[in-house]
Amino acid sequence: MKLILLWVSTFLYVTALAAQPADGPTLWRDAEVTQFRLPLATWGKAPSLLKEKQYYALPEVNLKTYPVYAPDKEPAGYLDWLRQQDPQPLVDYSKLKTDADWIAAGREIFYGRELPRFTGSEHNLAMIRNPQVLAAYRLNTTAEGVLVGLRYVVREKGKVELGTDTCAMCHVQIRDGKLIEGPANTHTPFGPLMGDLTRRYQQMSPQMLDERRRKHMREDYRVPFLADDPNLKIADLPAEEIAGLYDAHPLGVHGRTNTSLRYPVKISNLIGVADLKYLDHTGTARNRGLTDLARYSGMIGDVTDSLTRYADGPEGKLVLEHMGLGGGVKRSPDAAWFAVARFLTSLKPPANPNTVDDQARRGQQVFARAGCSGCHPAPLYTNNRLTLAQGFTPPPADRTRYNVMPLSVGTDPNLALKTRKGTGYYRVPSLRMIWMDAAFLHDGSIGSLEELFNPDRLKPEFRSSNWHAKTPPRAVEGHRFGLDLPAADRAALIRFLKTL
């Protein structure tokens, strides 16, 4: 059954791609964009995205980037060779004829489309050539020494810049030396990495701290539709307190744009994303097919989401200069993001090292008996519905329109209520490939399945295995399902879940 569903899903996505107009797929149509985003709980309506004419008026960019190597693995004369290169296109879209062509192009963009707002300075170039910094930041590194997620950019001949945060930065794992594309990066400590950068900026100068951290934080995290926005106040804290908040982010979690330094979010596994009805842990956008997935990828990769309005007045427009986008926002060709979407839908789960044994079979019975399949039915192990954040009551019409379950699992509601991703809902997650996770619940506040089903996590002295050493103990509430099972049943349930 799983194979049949996967085949049907892939067939539908490929068919949708093939059915696009002869002059190329179209990403941004007003009629589709209008229904793309869900309303935000505190504002009461969906954020305002660009209109079709505005989107296609943005200048287009298709710039080739190059791998960044660890210093001891870098080919001889590599930087000198880069300085001799002319700016070139990343992908020649006129040559995409077959489905395999589209997938290959999407993979190139997945690894090579750098987020334009984070093109680095000479200081950043020096840092990534420092073995001590690299050891501390624990970036994913291939056997060939390529630092996954970083790219060199040649915008003009003779000048090499550092670009960061490609899709692969957050959505690649390396296990036993093998690259696994799609799952969350659970190796790089993104929070402590940002904390270290904050301290470095403070050491350089107050101006550097303000330009490279405080201003970014004010725009990345502020929520214009909140009357008393808690996110704005964080940027004014002393540098060490800001760094300490970053340090507290566990592995597999990222305080990315539109979330919050206080309310970061677990990095999603993109394998199987085609099967999900909603995108983001808070279900911010519908996933009705290839176009929605392509559009969402482009909003992140091209940072066109920075042009989204989150309030009716002037404060609803984000300040691009404060986000490092003073030069404006450029967009990639539509074909680029359709290629990325096709690449993502082509990803397959890696071999699961956990075999089905007698204990796992017993755990499957526990799973059924405990009612877990109500929210997590096979074969997707999600019912693809939304569940209420604690304290949120949606308009009655929205309960039906968005297939909302009439319950809350009681997890921390702040991401869903106090950020620009705050729909008031949480997406019921799929349990497939849960064995690859190092962070559980939407905020990654639990470090293992064993901890998730341990009643001790409800005690104020609890500390998760994935927390920073300086993070104080606290209870982790919510999702109490399974906590009252006998110890043997809990162990069997965990064994079963690891086989999915």
Describe this structure in words.
This protein has helices at 2-18, 30-34, 52-57, 78-83, 99-112, 122-127, 131-137, 167-170, 190-204, 206-221, 230-234, 239-247, 290-301, 334-346, 358-369, 396-401, 414-417, 449-452, 487-497, and strands at residues 65-69, 146-156, 159-163, 172-175, 178-181, 253-254, 265-266, 278-279, 285-286, 386-388, 404-405, 425-427. With 500 residues, the protein is of the alpha+beta class. It has two domains: 2-346, no CATH class; 358-384 and 428-497, Orthogonal Bundle (Cytochrome Bc1 Complex, Chain D, domain 2), CATH 1.10.760. The strands form five sheets. Strands 1-2-3 form a three-stranded antiparallel sheet. Strand 2 (146-156) and strand 3 form a beta hairpin. Helix 5 (99-112) crosses helix 14 (334-346), helix 9 (190-204) packs antiparallel against helix 10 (206-221) and helix 13 (290-301) crosses helix 14 (334-346).
Question: Percentage of helical residues?
Answer: 25-40%
What is the general shape?
globular
Approximately how much beta-strand content do the residues carry?
5-15%
**Total E-strand runs:** 12
What is the rounded Rg? 22 Å
- Helix count, DSSP H or I runs of 4 or more residues: 19
Mean pLDDT: 91
Overall structural class, as computed from helix and strand content, comes to: alpha+beta
Oligomer: single chain
Q: Estimate nothing, just give the exact number of structural domains.
A: 2
Distance between the termini: 14 Å
Strand ordering within the main sheet:
1-2-3
Which sheet architecture does the biggest sheet show?
3 strands, antiparallel
* Unreliable residue runs: 1-23
